Amino acid sequence: MSIIPQDPMLFTGSMRKNLDPFNQHSDEELWNALREVQLKSVVEELPGKLETVLAESGSNFSVGQRQLVCLARAILRRNRILIIDEATANVDPRTDELIQKTIRDKFRECTVLTIAHRLNTIIDSDRILVLDAGKIHAYDEPHVLLQDTKGIFYKMVQQTGKQEAAALLEAAKRAYDSRSRPSVANGHAESADVNLVIFETAL
């Protein structure tokens, strides 16, 4: 299991140790993971590259960069379960988009549990668990939840504004349709979400 927390923690030690604490991966694998999260050029510019010793808690990196280091570490670990706890709450939109894209690309065959407030990060999930004051309010596919106009999730979407709400509704429907419509390969019908099981929590 890999966890990417809201407050990313880096160890006092080299970049190599932060990416690969148990020395299980080659330099090529480390650089490839950094390339996946667009940090390769940043690390290449460090005085010692992979051997550069990071400041305590990685304070010489921005919050977004620390999140990306944690994501690169998760890519290397290849665990089947990934927990993302408000990982994009304190990062800029570009880093948010990069993290979301990387998760969708690299963890497509994993179970991803996301705890989030940003609706755009969870709107295309397989399932959303909506909590209200710590109690379960609803649990279903996003598009299905949005059919309940009296539900909390629908109201949360509407509170984002007319334009953003319309975009979220469309994204939820598009994701729902892509999972519901079987794809045909070599004459055989295959489920669109056969390798993707994501349970996400919207708070």
UniProtKB/TrEMBL annotation:
Q: Name one GO cellular component term.
A: plasma membrane
Domain ABC transporter span(s) in chain numbering: 2-89
Q: Does the keyword Cell membrane apply?
A: yes
Q: Which UniProt keywords apply?
A: ATP-binding, Cell membrane, Glycoprotein, Membrane, Nucleotide-binding, Transmembrane, Transmembrane helix, Transport
Cellular localisation: Cell membrane
Q: Which Pfam families match?
A: ABC_tran (PF00005)
Its record classes its membrane topology as:
Multi-pass membrane protein
- Asked if the record carries the keyword Magnesium, the reply is no
GO molecular-function annotation terms? ATP binding; ATP hydrolysis activity; ATPase-coupled transmembrane transporter activity
> What main location does UniProt list?
membrane
Q: Which residues form the signal peptide?
A: none
Matching entries from PANTHER family are given as: ATP-BINDING CASSETTE SUB-FAMILY C, ATP-BINDING CASSETTE SUB-FAMILY C MEMBER 4
This protein is called MRP4
Q: Which organism is it from?
A: Poeciliopsis prolifica (blackstripe livebearer)
Q: Organism classification, top ranks?
A: Eukaryota, Metazoa, Chordata, Craniata, Vertebrata
